[in-house]
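Please go through the protein record below and explain what the tokens say about the fold. Record follows.
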Amino acid sequence: MRRLLCCLLLCLFPLIAQAADAPRPKIGLVLSGGAARGLAHIGVLKALEEQGIKIDAIAGTSMGAVVGGLYASGYKIDELEKLALNIDWQQALSDAPPREDVPFRRKQDDRDFLVKQKLSFRDDGSLGLPLGVIQGQNLALLLESLLAHASDTRDFDKLPIPFRAVATDIASGEKVVFRKGHLPQVIRASMSIPAVFAPVELDGRLLVDGGMTDNIPLDVAREMGVDIAIVVDIGTPLRNRKQLTTVVDVLNQSITLMTRRNSEEQLAALHKDDVLIQPSLASFGVTDFGRAQEMIDAGYRATKILEARLARLKPVQPLDADLTAARTPSQRTPIITAIKVENDSKVGDDVIRYYIRQNVGEPLDIGRLQTDMGTLYGLDYFEQVQYRVVHKGQNHTLVITARGKRSGTDYLRVGLNLSDDMRGDSAFNLGASYRVNGINRLGAEWLTRHRSAINRNSTASSINRWTSVHATSSRPTLRLKRRTSSQSWTTTR
């Protein structure tokens, strides 16, 4: 019996040695799109890290590109979780800067016209309509601030974890896979939901959400050379007939139909060794950012359930401490050595530079720069005002990019105000203004206002009209105002 055991051990020894010498399989993580539901990806990553599973490559679409890009660039799980819980998502997913950052002249407009909506016109007088309800100004600034340490890494294979993001060319319908580029801009393009976010113009293409062509980019991960894929599907389920009650429901269902079709094609290509994680998210909507912790927990639970199956992916040797340290983000506040302005708007570069308070030779002050971006955007001259830091050796150049509004910078606003003292005396005010921006490169504008106030107990209405001219330059603002009712001029600084 003892001889038999010895013979078996001698026969099995070469096989055991061969298995020990076999290279560890390359593991890829595939993160799908799903708007707010994509926060569940953070819980998945948390559970994978707890099990000691090393991710060798990440491919993401839409919100999967956001979470995957941050993780691939060096963010740790606790940092991602803190971001998801603390970001003001309502502010991030709008274009309006905080009111304290809005220029005084725009605050005057809001005071006189409580209706925020306005019509824009191009220089030829035609009505200008935007390409999306949200231009993505605040979202782009947020991504830029979060990825300042990696924004100049053009080759995504050189990130701490190789990364790919997927977008869609809205003109041709082609899938666009980003292997290199400006990481914040690439992620912004991947999550541009059509009609909701304005498309991103990049390399001559007009790009929208990657979910339109590849919401679960398993094929992209395969092209990165992975042996085993961990696929996270957080796609939105289809609504039934009774749930389709509004035009918004129908629009969302149409988008879901397109994304589910290409998602099913990818899921059908799973190999037997791949792992599919589908968090229970039926009760969460695509805008439920306020329920971030619940969705993170859902992703965590779905991954822990598969712990036994994932155990075989755990490396025999513990992760090298040097590899873990490599994922720690580098310094996120470089010393700025130069400032450059890229501008195609109606105002001159000096006007833009005047509002930027960042000094050369000082560390990048992201908080103050975000405020300056909001003030510039609030001037209503720009479709977007963004920044990036270009690193070249010891030089760090802050580049300010100002894109003029394609929908026009001349605005018509109308307003109505009603009042009643509950004692039989009521009044209403009608108002309108037309503002022509960009009279010169200094940012001068022509503003015409008209108001009519009618009191129910008065025999005649009082009418007040005035025209004012504002000039903006790199010096303090000079404003001249002429009121036709009093024929007087006032000058203020």
Q: What stands out?
A: The radius of gyration is 28 Å. The longest helix spans residues 247-267. The CA atoms of residues 151 and 182 lie 6 Å apart.
